[in-house]
Amino acid sequence: MNDCLFCRIVAGELPSTEVASSELSYAFRDIDPKAPTHVLVVPRRHIATAHDLRAEHGEELIDLVTLAQQVVRAEGLVDGLPGGGGYRLVFNVGPDAGNLVPHLHLHVLGGRPLAWPPG
Fold first, then answer.
1. What is the C-alpha to C-alpha distance for residues 24 and 22, in angstroms, rounded to an integer?
2. Residue ranges of the domains in the chain?
């Protein structure tokens, strides 16, 4: 998708700060972080939202979560688990949820206590 912001980032047409990558996914720092660690993990192939996921996307979804786990370890967000530390994985779907870019992305948030419920 030529007009998709995240497709252009994955293609290297727009700058990003890479955190990790795999054959199927790419992880980079959010430009408007909501926590000390705020990384976006996106599939290299364009999928609009989590609502559009189907069985045939299984390998890509597993890869997103696996790459997110790699980011979590690299960022030190699992230190002290289960007694302390932690992180949040979030898919936002639609404008009411704050989804600004129509390309599936998994937010990895951590580095401080996160309020519950989010808001």
1. 5
2. 5-110
Residue 105 a catalytic site member: yes
Mean pLDDT of 5-26: 97
Which residues face 89 on adjacent strands?
108
pLDDT, tens digit (0-9, with 9 covering 90-100), for 61-104: 999 999 999 999 999 898 655 556 789 999 999 999 999 999 99
Domain over 5-110 is classified CATH 1.10.443.10:
no
Answer whether 21's CB lies under 8 Å from 13's CB: no
**Which listed residue (51, 57, 105, 107) is catalytic?**
105
